[in-house]
Amino acid sequence: MEITWHGHSTFHVTVDNTALLVDPFFDNPKTDLEPGAVDADYVLLTHGHMDHIADVGAFPDATVVGLPEVVGYCADNYGVSETIGANLGGTVELGDAFVTLHRADHTNGMETTYESTGGGMPAGFVISDTKPTQVSDAESSTFYHAGDTGLMTEMREVIGPYLEPDVAAVPIGDHFTMGPMQAAIAVDWLDVDVALPMHYDTFPPIEVDPEEFRREVTATGSSTEVRILAGDESITVAE
């Protein structure tokens, strides 16, 4: 599994021969790529805010996956033709990948209409090369994209012990999501090997020094490695 960060919450994930793009938003200071510059078989949307769906229309040949309300909105407004509506707790098989939706604690107004509640509960995605079961599988490679969220005990009680992510991308920008302190607690609860900070430095309210996140993770006593990626930088998750 290869994971590439394109700034903000935009991640490109390759599982064997399947390419997935999460929350396409390339108008951010961490990437020089134009929308549509990466390959995507599937585009995964955590929720309907502008900074997560803005460039979904740049991938007309991809299948768009997310909550039914969000993918329906994109079909109506972005010319998306192929969609898969899934919901919280569900696992969908997307080519060589298995993607499980889990709740994220956030709002979900569509586009910039933050007062709207029409998008349903926001989601995070657990992306794996094997289908999750109650039997622990040390051979699987699993990436958790937490979406826009605050700290929630499901990370400790469900996602960490049962979905077993190896790598987690967590928002650290504060103001709209967790800041470095709560994100560090999330990483400790998830017990992942590697943590990737995201959703920071895009707009003035979320300008954060990611080294603060690293210090907070250390303060929890966690052995998790914090990787502060440069824009368009990749890491590989080995089995």
From TrEMBL:
Against InterPro entries, the record matches this protein to: Metallo-B-lactamas, RibonucZ/Hydroxyglut_hydro, UPF0173, UPF0173_UPF0282_UlaG_hydrolase
A GO MF annotation of the entry reads:
hydrolase activity
Ranges for domain Metallo-beta-lactamase: 7-199
What the entry lists under Pfam families is as follows:
Lactamase_B_3
* Keyword terms of this UniProt record: Hydrolase
The record's comment on protein family reads: Belongs to the UPF0173 family.
Please give the PANTHER family that the UniProt record associates with this protein: UPF0173 METAL-DEPENDENT HYDROLASE MJ1163, UPF0173 METAL-DEPENDENT HYDROLASE MJ1163-RELATED
Specify the protein name: UPF0173 metal-dependent hydrolase Hmuk_2759
- Species for this entry: Halomicrobium mukohataei (strain ATCC 700874 / DSM 12286 / JCM 9738 / NCIMB 13541)
